[in-house]
Amino acid sequence: MPILLISGTGTDIGKTLTTAALAAATLARGHSVAVLKPAQTGIAPGEPGDVAEVQRLAGPAVTAVELARFPEPLAPATAARRAGRAPVRPREIAREATRLAKEHDLVLVEGAGGLLVRLDDAGSTLADAAALLDAPVLVVAAAGLGTLNATALTAEALRARGLRSPGVVIGSWPAEPDLAMRCNLADFPESAQAPLLGALPEGAGALAPEEFRARAASWLAPELSGTWDAQAFTKA
User: CA gyration radius for the chain?
Assistant: First the structure.
């Protein structure tokens, strides 16, 4: 997977931390990594955005690229329109990801919000960029009640567009999960029709960068350069 897109079942779901963990685990194996954020919203000029957070946690060896930044915390199409600026379009994303893939072993493209959040007024989405790149889309999901429906809808949207997904990562797993969360572990693969490939602990972003890097591989399955065992985690 020289290019992997990361999308969530919604916003504030853990995409950036998952991207950082993927980057850290891949770097630990001696591979080069670039992280591409097509559209950063809700961040003022000069403030650190998602790619800066990935670089902080995973390490300065990550190549961090942001294509556009819009100040209001809205969907990219709306934020671009209100800012009076051109939106980011799928072909721009595909072009930059392809360029980065020539120089890196892995390119991670982190979307904004969910899979079908509009990038422009034509209705383009991250799914269109994935189609242009013929690249898989990793789904980041919440842990609790309601997540199975959102995960199933995201997976269905991917299949309807002929896109593939390696699986699902839980963006934040609490130290004391409730009954719904524990049951969801067994149900995620059926809802997504793809395997569960990891779970990041709640508060992972508050760890010191050195500890985050040391632990990142333990949160991700071998398919994502980690050591996480879905069967053992589900039985714990």
Answer: 17
